[in-house]
Amino acid sequence: MRSFAEGDTMTREVKNPEELVGRGAREGAQLFREWFDDLSRISHEGGQAAYVFVMGSMAELLRVFDIATVFPEIHSLQTAVRRVALEYLNQAEDYGYSPDICGYVKADFALQLRGGEHPMGQIPRPTLAVATNACNTYIKWAEIWERMFNIPVFTLDVPGTRSAGTQSWPGQTAFDRDRRYVSAQIQELISLCEELSGKRFDIDRLREALDSTNQMIRGWKRVLELNRSAPAVFNALTDGTIYLGVANAIRGLPQGGQYFSDLVEEMEYKAANAIGTVPEEKHRLVFVGVPCYPIFRRFNEMFTEWGGIFVSSTYLWFASGGINLGYEYDLQRPLESLAEGTLINVRQAMDSMFFQDRALIEMVDTFQVDGVVFHPIKSCRTTSTGQADTRRAFMEATDVPCLFIESDMMDKRVVSEAQLKNRIDAFFEGLNARKLQHAVV
Amino acid sequence: MASRNENLLADWQGTTLEQTLEAARQLVEDVSFPTVSRWREMGRKVVGHFQVYFPEEIADAAGMLPLKIRGAQLEAVRAESRFGSYLCSILKTSLELALSGRVELDMFVTHPICDAARNLAAVWGRNFAYPCQILYLPQNANSSYAGQYLRDEYDRLKMDLEEIGGKPITNEDLNRSIEVFNENRRLLRRLYALKREQPWLVSVEETYVLVALGGLITRREHNEFLQRLLPMIEARGSRQQDKIRVVFEGGFCEQPPLDLLRAISQTCYVVDDDLLIGLRWILEDVALGADPLMSLANAYLENSSYSPVQHDLRKPKEDMLLLRIREAKAEAAIIAAAKMCEPGLDEQVTYSKTLDEAGIPYFLSEFEEKMTSFDQMQTQLETFAENILFF
Q1: CB neighbour burial string for B141-167, b if at least 16 within 10 angstroms, e if fewer
Q2: pLDDT exceeds cutoff 70 at A10
Q3: Looking at beta carbons, which pairs linking B230-238 to residues 24 or more positions away fall under 8 Å?
Q4: Cβ distance A358 to A164 under 8 Å?
Q5: How many Å apart are CA B391 and CA B386, to the nearest integer?
Q6: pLDDT at position A438
Q7: What are phi and psi of A7, to 5 degrees?
Q8: Which chain B positions have a beta carbon within 8 Å of A181's beta carbon?
Q9: Chain A contact present for B311, CB below 8 A
C-alpha cells in the first residue's frame, strides 16, 4: 500500500507514540465537553450568547464582543447521539410541528420549551441569532427564536455559486459585487453587536481571533489531505465528526488553532508509520451527506465490519463552514479579509452540497476511492435534494460503485437498521466480487 | 397593443366569457404547453423561471418569453430517478416537464427560496446543456446595501440574457417592458379587488387561471386578454351566496390542483390568497427612469408582498397574514401547506398560533399538486363553514 507520507510528510521524533495516537479524539472530546460546560456556566450566570450555525458562524467577530457561540445544530444532533432525540421531537410535534420538517429545528424547539435543558448541560438563552443563507432552514429556525425570545435576528446573506463551475474570485467584478454586499452586512452586524454588548469594536481582537482561525484552517486542510494515505489515518465519519465539533465550537480561540496543529502532528505520525483505524483496510469510501446520528456507532460498524473506511466526507467540507478550501485571512486587512473569507468559505460550504459532483469525481484518484456512500436524509433537504442526481452524474463519469441509502440524522422512526444492513452488506459483497474480478484480470 | 405575430393564444376574440374561461383553464392545465411550442416555432427563446419571484421584465426586454415553472399534474417518470424521497412534488414534476421534452428552454433559473429549490440549478444543469443558474435574490432585505446588491445581481442576469438572446438590452427596452408589466400589475390588482369586494363574480379557481395564464404568454397579450375579460366579469349577473369569506394561504410555490380550489369555492369565498404570489409580488408601479434595474430592485425590496420564503424584519409573516385577513374582510383562513414543503410547514405553526390568539377561525390542510380526491376535505370544510355560519 502506498503511504502519503512518502516525500510529503514531515517525520517527527515522538517521545511517546502511544500517547500521540488517538490524542486528537481524546482531547477533542475533552475540549467539546469543556465548551458545553462553559455554555452551562453562561446560562447560569446570564451571560451573552449568540445562536449561530456551522456554515458562517461569524465566531471571530462575536469573540471580539465576548459573545459566546451556541450551535443549535450541534446541541440538537447531540440529543440523537445520546438517544433522547425522540422525546424532543415528539414534544415539538405535539406543539404543531410537522413530522416532515428538519429534526434539528424540532429538537431545539423542544429544548427551548424546556428552558435549555440538554443531556450535556444547560443551553443559554440567545442574545441574538446570526443566520446565514447557506441553509434556508437556518432562517426559518431563527424566526422561531425571534418570536420566542424577541431577540434580533441577523440574516447574513452570502451569495453562492450561480451555476456549476462559475465561481468568481478576488479581482473579478462579480466577486467584488458580492464582497461589497457581505462587507456592508458585516459592518451592520458589528453595529448590532456593539449595541447589544455595550462594547466597542476592537480590530486587534478580531485580528487575534482570525489568527487562531488561520491556524485551525491550515491544520484542517492538512488533516483532510493526510487521509490520502493508505491506510487512512482517521475515519472521516466518526473521528472526523469529533474534529468537526472542535472546529466549530472553539473556532477563533487559540486552543482551537493549537488543537489542529497537534492533530496534524498526530496524523503525520500515523501516515509516516502506516497506522490506520481498522485492523485491515479493504475498501476506501467517501461519505456524502449528514451522518445517521440516531445509530451513529452502529451505522459506522456496518461499514468497518467489512473493512470499509471513510477516507473523506462532504460533511467535513460543508459542516466546517467551507474551511477545507484553505482560505486564510489577511491579518493586515482583517475586516476586508473577513468579508472576503466569509464569502469564499460559505460559498464553498454551499458548493459542497449543491455542486459536489466534480469534487467527488476528482477525489477518486487522489484518495484511491473504492466506493461512494450517498446518504440522503429525511430531515435535511439542503444536503439531500441533489444526491440522487449527483450519484447519476458520478456514475456516468467514473466506474466507482455507489451505495444510496436513506435514513435520518435525528429521527430513529425513519431509520431501519435491518434494511440499512441488508443494503450495506450487498454493497460490500459487490465490492469484494469486483476486487476479486480485477485481481483475476 | 401586443404585436399580432407575438400572440400565442388561440383566437379568443368573440367568444363568451364562460367559453374563454374554460379555454384558459384547459390551457393552464395543459402539460404540453402549446403556447411555449408556438413561441418556439416563431424562432423565439424561452427562459424558464422556477417559483416564487423572477424579474420577468428583464427577460421580456431581451425578447424572450419568461415561462413560469410551477410544476404540473403529471407523473414524474424520468425525474423520479433524479431525486430521493421526502421531497415536494413540484421539484420533480418541473424537471419532468423538461426531461420529457414537454417544454424546451434556452435557460433555467431557480432561486434560493428553500433548501430543495436551490438544488435545482445543479440538478437541471447536470441534465441539460443550456445555462441553468440560481438568481440570488437577497435574503437580508434589511441591509442598507441589499438594493445595490440586487441591482448588480439583475445586471449579471441581464448580461447572461443578452448572451443567450444575442442582442444587447438597453434601458429603453427595460423601461418599455416595465411599462407593460406595470399595466399587468394594475389589471391583476383590479381582478383581486373584484375578488375581495364582489367574490361572487369571480371564483378562486377562475382567478387562479387568469393569473396563471400570464406565466404562459407574453404580458402584452395577457394585458389585452384581461382588458377584454375584466369588464365581462364585472358585468356578470352572479348573485351573492351564503358562503364564508376566507383567505387562502400556502400557495406561494407548489400549486394546489384546480379541483381543490373548486372544492373550496363550493363553501367559501376566497377573498384573498397567496396563489402564484410571485406574479403579483410587486404591489405598485415600478418607476421608469435612467436605472430601471435599480427600480426593479427597489420595488422587490420596498414595495412587495410577503411569503414564507423571504425574511424581512419589516414584514413578520404572521402580522402580514393578519393584515391580509383584515383588508379582505375575511372571517376565517385556510392555512395550507404543500406536502414536504419545509417553509410552508414551518409557517403553518406560527400562523395557527397567531390566529388562535386573534380568535380567527382557521382550517389547516396539506395538499399535493397531483392529489385527485377532495371529498374528505370538502366535507371537513363544509363542517368548518357551518360552524362559522350558524354558531
Answers
A1: bbbebbbbbbbbbbbbbbebbeebbee
A2: no
A3: B230/B187, B230/B190, B230/B191, B230/B194, B232/B17, B232/B20, B233/B17, B233/B191, B233/B194, B233/B201, B233/B202, B233/B206, B234/B194, B234/B201, B236/B17, B236/B201, B236/B202, B238/B200, B238/B201
A4: yes
A5: 8
A6: 84
A7: 70, 0
A8: 138, 143, 145-146, 148-149
A9: yes
Q: Does B98 touch chain A (CB under 8 A)?
A: no
pLDDT digits (tens, 9 = 90+) for A43-71: 999 999 999 999 999 999 999 999 999 99
Q: Scanning the structure block, which residue is given the C-alpha cell 428583464?
A: B58
The distance from CA B234 to its chain's CA centroid, rounded to whole angstroms, is 23
Please list the alpha-helical segments (H only) found in A99-167. 103-113, 136-149
Report strand pairing: A117-118 vs A121-122. antiparallel
Residue type, B369: E
Among A276, A272, A302, which Cα is nearest to A287's?
A302
Please confirm whether the linkage preceding A231 is cis (ω < 30° from 0): yes
SS (H, E, C) A277-345: CCCCCCEEEEEEECCCHHHHHHHHHHHHCCCEEEEEECHHHHCCCCHHHCCCCCCCCHHHHHHHHHHHH
ipTM: 0.96
Q: In this complex, do A98 and B123 lie within 8 Å of one another by their Cβ atoms?
A: no
Dihedral of the alpha carbons of B235, B236, B239, B242, in degrees to the nearest 10:
-110
- In chain B, whose CA is at the least distance from the CA of A390? B123
Does the N-terminal peptide bond of residue B52 adopt cis geometry, omega within 30 degrees of 0?
yes
Question: Which amino acid, B273?
Answer: D
DSSP letters along B278-296, please? GGG-B-SPPPPSS-HHHHH
Nearest CA among A330, A308, A311 for reference residue A271: A311
Task: Give contacts of A154 with chain B, Cβ < 8 Å.
Answer: 140
**How many Cα neighbours within 13 Å face the side chain of A327?**
21
Q: Is the overall model pTM greater than 0.90, yes or no?
A: yes
- Whether chain A has a CB inside 8 Å of the CB on B129: the answer is no
Any idea what DSSP says for residue A209?
A: H
What are the CA-CA distances from residue B78 to residues A405, B92, B95, B235, B282 (Å)? 20, 9, 9, 46, 35
- What is the torsional sign of CA B53, B56, B59, B64? positive
pLDDT of residue A9: 38
Asked if B127 reaches chain A (Cβ–Cβ under 8 Å), the answer is yes
